[in-house]
Design goal:
4 strands; binds iron/sulfur cluster; 15% strand
Length: 123
């Protein structure tokens, strides 16, 4: 029997507090609902690894989570001609100031973004 298609989460995982939040949000979504969500190895997609290209082409839909306005994850997807169904930018959409001195986000920011994100998705 064919496997059910999943919503693919593509997060930037950048070296900053907002990159950490993007990554934590993606992992939490997959951990909490593995039947619905899957994650993409963005670096593997960037170097055109076949399993990653296949995941993108077979996804039910795509949610991209960028840490900041540089939108690296969105731009890497664009190199393959892919437009996500939903785009989230942690710094602008959840009012978290990017800090490159902080590779880890404040736990309170991570929790707040996770809760806000779920409310938006469930609307
Ligand atoms: S989108 Fe921003 S936080 Fe994410 S990898 Fe790019 S520069 Fe870093």
């Amino acid at each position: 029997m064919a496997e059910e298609k999943k919503v693919l989460i593509v997060s930037c995982s950048g070296a900053s507090n907002t990159g950490d939040i993007a990554d934590e949000l993606a992992r939490a979504l997959v951990e909490e609902n593995p039947e619905e969500y899957d994650m993409l190895c963005l670096a593997a997609y960037a170097i055109k690894r076949l399993p990653s290209l296949k995941k993108v082409s077979e996804a039910k839909s795509i949610i991209v989570i960028d840490g900041c306005s540089a939108k690296c994850a969105s731009k890497i997807l664009e190199t393959g001609g892919v437009k996500p169904d939903t785009s989230i930018e942690v710094s602008a959409d959840f009012q978290v100031k990017k800090n490159m001195e902080l590779p880890r986000a404040e736990e309170s920011d991570v929790q707040r973004v996770k809760e806000d994100f779920k409310k938006r998705v469930q609307k």
